[in-house]
Design brief:
With about 140 residues, this protein is mainly α. The protein contains six helices and no strands. The chain has one domain (about 1-145). Helix 1 packs across helix 5 and helix 2 (about 55-80) packs antiparallel against helix 3. The longest helix is centred in the N-terminal third of the chain and has 49 residues, at about 1-50. This is Lipoprotein. Keywords: Coiled coil. It comes from Piscibacillus halophilus.
């Protein structure tokens, strides 16, 4: 009887570990989808300014605010611990995030020196990487299903 209880207990404990992994994967998937959605929104916001013929001082302040928000989101996402099943995708997203952070540093440098050029900004990795993040939405959906 004792052996049966121990076996049942071990099976139950092992099952809890599997359930925890599934829950962690679902939570990670939701966080990542939210993150990608947020980044796509930022891309749209930044594009609005980049399509203007002339940027005002207020536009530059707004862009600076957006860049600061993007930087905070990127850093927060990079702190997430992915489940093992999503470690590959997370690594790819982190790579794009690193490019975004480098581009943010360059954009901040340009703005601090009064050299901000919208065309050059579009060519920075921030715009490209934000666009590439969209492609991960489908991959995350696949992991969650």
């Amino acid at each position: 009887m004792r052996a049966l209880i121990m076996v049942i207990s071990l099976v139950f404990i092992a099952g809890c570990g599997i359930i925890d992994e599934v829950n962690q994967t679902v939570d990670y998937g939701k966080e990542t989808k939210d993150y990608v959605g947020t980044m796509v929104g930022y891309q749209d916001d930044v594009s609005t300014y980049m399509n203007k013929d002339q940027l005002t001082e207020q536009d530059l302040q707004d862009i600076k605010g957006l860049i600061d928000e993007i930087e905070a989101e990127v850093k927060a996402f990079n702190e997430i611990e992915p489940p093992s099943v999503a470690s590959g995708i997370h690594g790819e997203i982190e790579s794009h995030n690193d490019q975004i952070l480098e581009a943010i540093d360059e954009a901040n440098r340009q703005m601090d020196q009064g050299e901000f050029n919208p065309e050059a900004f579009e060519n920075l990795e921030i715009a490209k990487s934000l666009s590439e993040l969209k492609s991960y939405k489908d991959q995350i959906d696949e992991i969650m299903n």
